[in-house]
Amino acid sequence: MNTQFPHERILMGPGPSPVPQRVLRALSAPTLGHLDPQYLAIMDETCEMLRQVMRTRNPLTFPVSGTGMAGMECVAVNLVEPGDEVVVCVNGVFGGRMKDVMERCGATVHVVEAPWGETIPHDKIAGVLARNPGVRLVGIVHAETSTGAHQPIEGLAEIVHAKGAMLVVDAVTSLGGHDVRVDDWGIDALYSGTQKCLGCPPGLSPVTMGERALARLDARKTKPQSWYLDVTLLRKYYLAGGGGGARVYHHTAPINMTYALREALAIVLEEGLDARVARHAAVHQRLRAGLEQMGLRYIPSHSLHTLNCISIPEGADDAGTRRRLLEEYGIEIGAGLGVMAGKAWRIGLMGHGATVRNVDLVLAALRAVLGR
Ligand SMILES: *Cc1c(COP(=O)(O)O)cnc(C)c1O
């Protein structure tokens, strides 16, 4: 196996997604010091672009060092104290992880479940909140990458806020591919990842927190158990600039990854958020039409555009098909995860990979490999 030159794969799995040359070039720019004024200007610009892409004015918006799971942990460790009651919506792997992470923070978790592939009705969440008046936070996954279910978020914050709780949203597989409106939808905290629909390598997790989240931080009686992800410390580095204060070193920021994210966000904003969402919708429709023509069936009733989860057809070889796609066509698609292992394939159409060319390529390759 050649380990010197990584292949140029067509990444059509659940992430990472293809990275544009512009972003790879940005990665290789000279490494600056993390307190160099030029780097701080780049960081400030990156945070401002994140606000635009998330459609928020939240001052506390920055890339957490680490992948999407670091964003999930960051939000949880800062907003949950031992003994807090929270609600977590679980309809797949990532909702299940959010429950686990919240429990590790000492929360008592009330789970609202839906079968895998389905979305969670808002009135079911309202029912659990009505029965448990002490709940402080509701966590939900916008784009459940393990099942391809597209969870409606709009309108949920009103229900959650009416009970005095906060709304936390996982937008790892939606930001940059689906409409995500932090302020309009009343989301109090949201995290994402760079390697799904933003067209950047894995390594950073954009996080935003609004006023309710900040008030919860200020009201904490205990320190978050994670020093590395403590937002009260992190903000003295990431966000001091805007207020004119001095930057305080916390940890060495991943300098070159910040360049890459800045470039990836520039590409998103050049395309325009609405145009980008429309592009993801159009390629999803094209893929769906082709798959259904081949007799392949979508599992979720309300499917994401960015992640297409289909049943493995009767008699098809799961691992063998994916291996042939990779070896003969250079195309990576995803296997089923959790209860869908062996039952589903997951085809990602994310960011730079969400193109007509890739759709037609994967359809032709599947047709050949499956003999349809
Ligand atoms: C990928 C993903 C994560 C985790 O992100 P990593 O970058 O793998 O740490 C969390 N939530 C969802 C919905 C995801 O798709």
Radius of gyration over all CA atoms, rounded: 21 Å
Q: Could you say how many structural domains there are in total?
A: 2
Q: Span between N and C termini? A: 32 Å
Architecture per CATH nomenclature, i.e. the level-2 architecture of the largest domain: 3-Layer(aba) Sandwich
Mean pLDDT figure: 97
Class by SSE composition: alpha/beta
| Biggest sheet record | 7 strands, mixed
Shape: globular
Helical content stands at 25-40%
- Say how many strands there are: 14
- Oligomer state equals single chain
| Annotated CATH topology of the largest domain | Aspartate Aminotransferase, domain 2
Secondary structure tally, helices = 12
In the CATH scheme, the class of the largest domain would be: Alpha Beta
Which molecules are bound besides the chains? pyridoxal-5'-phosphate
State the gist of this model:
The protein has 2 domains: 10-16 and 273-371, Alpha-Beta Complex (Aspartate Aminotransferase, domain 1); 21-269, Type I PLP-dependent aspartate aminotransferase-like (Major domain) (Aspartate Aminotransferase, domain 2). It contains 12 helices and 14 strands.
